Amino acid sequence: MADIIAETDRLVLRTIEDGDVALQDRVLNTPAVMARLGGVKELHEIEAKHAKSRALYAQHGFSFLFMIEKATGEMVGHCGIKQVDNPLAPNVGDHEIGWLVREDRWRRGYAEEAMRAVLEWAFLRVQAPHVVALTSHANAGSWKLMEKLGMVRREDLDFTDPAFGAEDNPTIQYSLTRDQWESAK
C-alpha cells in the first residue's frame, strides 16, 4: 500500500507501488514527455527505476512519488527526491529533486505545486541541507521552474553526459539551500 507523503490543493503525492510500472509506461513514457530525459524507456528500465525508488524510500525515507490529481484520481506525473547518481556529476550523493508531468496536464502549474510540497518535505522532514535539480539549456521549462522555486544556477556543477545528445549537453544544475528556501517562502 502506498504512503501519502504530501497533499496540495489539487494533488496527492504518494509513493510508487509494485504495480505502477504499466501505469507509468502508459501515461508518462511518451516521446513528448521523455524528450529531454533520454527518450522513451523500455519496461525493464521503468521497473528498475521503480525498484530503486522503493529501496531508497525504505532505506532513507525519500524517493520519487506519483502525482495523483484529486479531482479525477488520475496519475498526472511524478516528482520527488533521489540522490544524484550519475557518476559523471561532481556532486554524486546530493539530494536531487525532479518532476515530470504528462502532456495533457502541461501548463496547469502542477509541477510547481508538487515541487513546493517536495521542497518542504526535503527540508523539514528529510532534513536535506540543500537540494539540486538537473536539466539542460534546451529544457527551458525546467530551468525556468527551478528559478521560480528560488533555485540558483550552479555552473560549477555542470557536466557532459555522452548518454544525451548535443542538444541536451551539458547537464546543468541549480541548487537551493534550506536557508535560501526559508527566506524565499
Helix content bin: 25-40%
Shape: globular
Mean pLDDT: 95
Question: What pattern of helices and strands is seen along the backbone?
Answer: EEHHHEEEHEHEEH
Q: What is the C-alpha radius of gyration, as a whole number of Å?
A: 15 Å
> How is the CATH topology named?
Aminopeptidase
Major beta sheet summary? 8 strands, mixed
CATH architecture classification name: 3-Layer(aba) Sandwich
- Which structural class do you get from the secondary structure elements? alpha+beta
Q: Which CATH class applies here?
A: Alpha Beta
- Quick one: how many beta strands? 8
Strand order of the largest sheet: 1-2-3-4-5-6-8-7
- CATH homologous superfamily title: Gcn5-related N-acetyltransferase (GNAT)
- DSSP strand content: 25-35%
For the record, the count of structural domains works out to 1
Uncertain segments: none
State the end-to-end CA separation.
Answer: 33 Å
Instruction: Count up the helices.
Output: 6
GO molecular function: acyltransferase activity, transferring groups other than amino-acyl groups
Keywords: Transferase
Protein name: Acetyltransferase
Organism: Qipengyuania flava
From the structure above, extract its key features.
6 helices; Aminopeptidase; 8-stranded mixed beta sheet; transferase; acyltransferase activity, transferring groups other than amino-acyl groups; alpha+beta; about 180 residues
Describe the protein in words.
- The chain has about 180 residues and is α+β, with helices and mostly antiparallel strands.
- The chain has one domain (about 5-185): Aminopeptidase (3-Layer(aba) Sandwich), CATH 3.40.630.
- It contains 6 helices and 8 strands; from the N terminus they run E-E-H-H-H-E-E-E-H-E-H-E-E-H.
- It has helices spanning about 20-25, 30-35, 45-60, 110-125, 140-150, 180-185, and strands at about 5, 10-15, 65-70, 75-85, 95-100, 130-135, 150-155, 170-175.
- An 8-stranded mixed beta sheet has the order 1-2-3-4-5-6-8-7, sandwiched between helices.
- A hairpin with a 3-residue loop joins strand 1 and strand 2 (about 10-15).
- Helix 1 (about 20-25) crosses helix 3.
- The mean pLDDT is about 95.
- Pfam families: Acetyltransf_3.
- This is Acetyltransferase.
